[in-house]
Amino acid sequence: MQPQATAVTAALAKLDNLPDAALSLTVKDLALLLGRSESSIWRDVRLGRIAPPVKTGPACTRWRVGVIRRHLATLTGGQQ
C-alpha cells in the first residue's frame, strides 16, 4: 500500500472507530479525508465552512470526530 493510501486508511479508521466526542482528528487527517490541502482546510475554518477545532495545547489542535462525521454527511447529502 502506498504511504498516502495508508494515511487515508488510518484517518478513516479514526473516523469509524472512535466515539463522536473523541478529539482525535488533525488537520492532516481532514485534508486526507476531504481530498484537500491543509491550507484549504484552514481557509474553510476561517470562512465558517468547517467547524473550528479545539485547541488542546500550545501547538496542538484537534477536531471532534462527531463534528467531522456531520460535516461529511452534509457533503454527501446525508447518505453514507
Fold and architecture overview:
It comes from Pseudothauera lacus. This is Transcriptional regulator. The chain is α+β, with helices and mostly antiparallel strands. The protein has one domain (5-77). Helices cover 54% and strands 15% of the residues. The protein is built from four helices and three strands; from the N terminus they run αβααββα. It has a three-stranded antiparallel beta sheet with strand order 1-3-2. β2 and β3 form a beta hairpin. α1 (3-17) crosses α2. The longest helix is centred in the N-terminal third of the chain and has 15 residues, at 3-17.
Task: Give the helix/strand layout.
Blueprint: H1 3-17, E1 23-25, H2 27-34, H3 38-46, E2 54-57, E3 60-64, H4 65-75
Antiparallel strand pairs: 1-3, 2-3
Protein name: Transcriptional regulator
What structural keywords apply?
about 80 residues; alpha+beta; three-stranded antiparallel sheet; 4 helices; 3 strands; Transcriptional regulator
Task: Summarize the entry for a quick read.
The protein has 80 residues and is an alpha+beta fold. The chain is built from four helices and three strands. Helices cover 54% and strands 15% of the residues.
β-strand percent reads: 15-25%
Task: Give the integer mean of the pLDDT values.
Answer: 87
Distance between the termini: 25 Å
What's the tally of helices?
4
Please indicate the count of domains. 1
Mind describing the biggest β-sheet?
3 strands, antiparallel
- Low-pLDDT ranges: none
**Per the principal axes of the C-alpha atoms, what is the gross shape?**
globular
Alpha-beta classification = alpha+beta
State the share of residues found in helices, binned by percent.
40-55%
Strand order of the largest sheet: 1-3-2
Radius of gyration using CA atoms only? 12 Å
> What is the string of SSEs from the N terminus onward?
HEHHEEH
Number of strands: 3
